[in-house]
Amino acid sequence: SPQIVWLRRDLRLADQPAFHAAAKSGPVIPVHVLDDGRAGDHAYGGASRWWLHHSLESLGATLGSHHSRIVLRRGDAPQVLASLAEETGATCIHALRHYEPWWKEAEDELRDALPDGRELCLYDGNYLLPPGSVTTGSGDPYKIYTPFSKAMLERMPPREPLPEPDTIHSPESWPESDALADWSLLPTRPDWAGGMREFWEVGETAACERLNWWADEVASYDNGRNLPSEDMTSRLSPHLHWGEISPAQVWHKLKDKRSEGWRVFAKELIWRDYAQNVIDQFPDYPRDSYRTYDERKLWRNPKMGHLIQSDLERWQRGMTGYPVVDAGMRQLWQTGWMHNRVRMIAASFLVKHLLIDWRFGEQWFWDTLVDADYGNNGVNWQWISGTGVDSNMFVRIMAPLTQSEKFDSAGYIREYVPELAKLSDAEIHDPADSRRGAYPKKMIGHKEARERALAAYAEAKG
Ligand code: FAD
């Protein structure tokens, strides 16, 4: 009897345990349901919708080469899938587990909605180890990264990746599918995705090619990862987020590298697992501060006044007057991605220099990143803002100009802030007002911002 594979952020054929199990059990009906209502304030942002469109298109083409296809439906996922199971006579819906609270809920609802004789079969496969499975000696999940990472490393490598299914049998007749174009996931007017089309190749094949390239580069990651002017990080984040490649595939491809670069990189992959462990324990973590300061005394809230709103907009548009921050925010807008070092500098600038509530930054990143990830984004924003379970301290305030020089971002600034392209390496990090031309003056001086942030923090702590 037919088997449904419910695809979400796991848009690949290799090392896809749900797909693998379905293909062994009968004819396969791969399905993606666009369920816009379920995630509330974390419904897909614009950049995510763009990526999703191309990733579905790419997977559809790959399935086509196996004489299969992907069925697209829109609506409440549990309802849609339960009726599709009836319609097709499928006995089992196979799916990878996802840990966002709305997906966990959907899995429970689907189990309840399925008619007798049909079941939901869930598998793990998007993380190195199933979130929640690595525990302390007393059986509790870890809250802090360092001991979590140590425990993870003791359990590595992850299981061997599964191959692509050899054959994918088609059902006798295909259920109807929406046309992808009718979902309007791509921007039309204005078409803001030109920079993204140039920067990215989307899909499983592109993810594997990038990984092959990265295998030759990973050795220099320990030194290169902090240099935004260089292409010295993997840029696998959207591929991992959308599940076009699994972390087990990444691990096994690189594990024999034995370089310092690989050791540092492995710990970054573990950060990704760590973030899922955090949202598994605290499902609202990307929405609520974990530490309880008196936040009304800490943040300037853009909803409370025009001036604060306009500060937020200057940050969003890359017009703060701090070249490295603006280069980052413009890279984000153009490409849907930002270098990690600059994400830290730009995020810290919003919460500490501008004292704007981290949630406004989290939401902007959510809308504009192609790798926007509920766990990774929430955990990193709370880490930067000093409000999280495992945080950088609020009083450690990053100095954007020093960071810019230290990590040699002149080339990066030239690329994304072309108004400053003619300035020398020495002056581009912090141009004199007379050398800025049309580029804005600094919104606030570093010293003044630092003092304001420390005073607000002292008051909020009480
Ligand atoms: P690499 O340096 O090559 O790292 C390899 C992989 O490890 C990444 O692809 C990613 O999956 C994982 N990883 C690396 N750093 C982290 C980290 N700090 N936390 C969790 N996983 C990590 N990453 C996202 O995937 N989605 C987000 O929404 C996101 N939001 C962020 C928000 C802020 C404020 C900050 C400071 C960081 C955020 N990150 C996020 C983490 C990190 O910046 C990106 O994962 C990284 O820049 C992606 O580029 P890369 O693939 O070249 O990373």
Quick summary:
This protein is mainly alpha-helical and 462 residues long.
Description:
There is one protein chain. The chain is mostly helical and about 450 residues long. The chain has 3 domains: about 1-125, HUPs (Rossmann fold), CATH 3.40.50.620; about 125-160 and about 195-280, Alpha Horseshoe (Serine Threonine Protein Phosphatase 5, Tetratricopeptide repeat), CATH 1.25.40.80; about 295-460, DNA Cyclobutane Dipyrimidine Photolyase, subunit A, domain 3, CATH 1.10.579.10. The protein has 21 helices and 5 strands. The chain has helices at about 15-25, 45-65, 75-90, 100-115, 145-155, 195-200, 205-215, 220-225, 235-240, 245-255, 260-280, 295-300, 305-315, 325-335, 340-355, 360-370, 375-385, 400-405, 410-415, 425-430, 445-460; strands at about 5, 30-35, 70-75, 90-95, 120-125. The protein has a 5-stranded parallel beta sheet with strand order 3-2-1-4-5, with helices on both faces. The longest helix has 22 residues, at about 260-280. The protein is globular and about 70 Å long. About 45% of the residues are buried.
Strand order of the largest sheet: 3-2-1-4-5
Give average pLDDT, whole number: 96
Ligands and ions found: flavin-adenine dinucleotide
Terminal-residue CA separation: 64 Å
Number of helices: 21
Report on the biggest sheet: 5 strands, parallel
Helical fraction: 40-55%
The radius of gyration over CA amounts to: 23 Å
Kindly report the name of the CATH homologous superfamily of the largest domain: DNA Cyclobutane Dipyrimidine Photolyase, subunit A, domain 3
CATH domain fold name of the largest domain:
DNA Cyclobutane Dipyrimidine Photolyase, subunit A, domain 3
Q: Which architecture of the largest domain would the CATH scheme give at its second level? A: Orthogonal Bundle
The proportion of strand residues reads 5-15%
What's the number of structural domains? Answer: 3
Overall geometric form: globular
CATH class of the largest domain: Mainly Alpha
Which secondary-structure class do the elements indicate? mainly alpha
